[in-house]
């Protein structure tokens, strides 16, 4: 299963995969960080497609075309804002990864790239987020055999190291 998972340090907006995941806000509006970069690269049609959806609850995912991106689709996953870990943030973050993978499978997508959802602007501790991400993806992959490749697209060597450590810690699913 490890061969289905790759961890890289790159700009997610440049990846040639079927879908990239946007660390979105509940309004699915252009924002900062990864979300802002994806919206800028995709073009104004992405904001219009997101507005037509009308939002997305925390922990869920929605699909739009990729427009100006190399990726054919964008899966918008709304991660939780860190509040100390006592408000179900871990379960909501896990749900982001799970619903994104299920949405990819439902739409026949074979490759997907994730950013580090809820870290940075939303304040989720990066080490905990990486462990939740890798554990959830490993647990979900048997349910989505058509998803042949999952890329964790890290922004910087520190994030990459945390994801590599989480991959090693989660072992085989």
UniProtKB/TrEMBL annotation:
Annotated Pfam families: Macro (PF01661)
UniProt-listed Gene3D superfamilies: Leucine Aminopeptidase, subunit E, domain 1
Superkingdom field: Bacteria
Ranges where the Macro domain occurs: 1-171
UniProt xrefs under NCBIfam families: PRK00431.1-6
Name listed for the protein in its UniProt record: RNase III inhibitor
């Amino acid at each position: 299963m490890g061969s289905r998972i790759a961890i890289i340090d790159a700009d997610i907006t440049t990846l040639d995969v079927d879908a990239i995941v946007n660390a979105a806000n509940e309004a699915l509006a252009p924002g900062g960080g990864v979300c802002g970069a994806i919206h800028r690269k995709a073009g104004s049609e992405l904001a219009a497609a997101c507005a037509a959806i009308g939002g997305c609850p925390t922990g869920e995912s929605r699909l739009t075309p990729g427009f100006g991106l190399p990726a054919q689709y964008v899966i918008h996953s709304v991660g939780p804002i860190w509040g100390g870990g006592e408000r179900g943030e871990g379960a909501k973050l896990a749900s982001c990864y799970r619903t994104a993978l299920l949405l990819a499978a439902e739409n026949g997508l074979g490759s997907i790239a994730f950013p580090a959802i809820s870290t940075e602007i939303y304040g989720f501790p990066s080490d905990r987020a990486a462990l939740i991400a890798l554990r959830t993806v490993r647990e979900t992959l048997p349910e989505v055999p058509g998803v042949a490749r999952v890329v964790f697209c890290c922004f910087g060597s520190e994030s990459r190291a945390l994801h590599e450590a989480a991959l090693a810690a989660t072992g085989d699913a």
